[in-house]
Amino acid sequence: MTGTCVILDIGGVLEFTPETGWVQRWEEKLRLPPGTVDERMGGVWQAGSVGAISERDVHEQAATRLGLDAADAEAFMADLWAEYLGTPNEELIAYVDGLRGRCRLGILSNSFVGARERETARYGFDRLVERIVYSHEIGVGKPDARAFGTACAQLGVRPEDCLFVDDVAVNVEAARAAGMQGHLFVDNAATIARITAHVERGRAGA
């Protein structure tokens, strides 16, 4: 196998994750002013994204900070995960699956404690790519250069041999600044064309 590598984001790329309005519904149910949930939970969301607290801690903090009983705390977390996991981008997933053996494959995701277990169970991303690098497991997220360096190191590839695909422009620019090639995900057609060109160039130069 060549050193040519493709690293993809999850939310907004391999998963479609539109806003479901779950936070607003909870604010209405709890009779809280708009923005209260994020105001009270913002620090918890940030800590969970870099693995500074456990999933159990998140659950307990939600109950405490929002005044939820046990049943409501479970329902609150279920709504969080429903939006987080979204639905699969089946066309792109199938395309990436067909790349196995033709190039190195990885995932780099700004994540949340509990994401690996849930995404593995629902989508099997651990079988799709060689390495999944989650922000909550390495303690740093995109666009920090360390996140891109960790992904390349775990895959054993050079940044210049990697194409990084993300739906957030600042992350794509950060990947380029880290020495990688970058593609901003807008739709499947353009993304598949860009990945195909990258892989074919890599194989031609091997």
Automatic annotation (TrEMBL):
NCBIfam families: HAD-SF-IA-v1, HAD-SF-IA-v3. It comes from Streptomyces globosus. InterPro entries: HAD-like_sf, HAD-SF_hydro_IA, HAD_sf, PGP-like_dom2. Pfam families: Hydrolase. The keyword Cell inner membrane does not apply. This is HAD family phosphatase. Keywords: Plasmid.
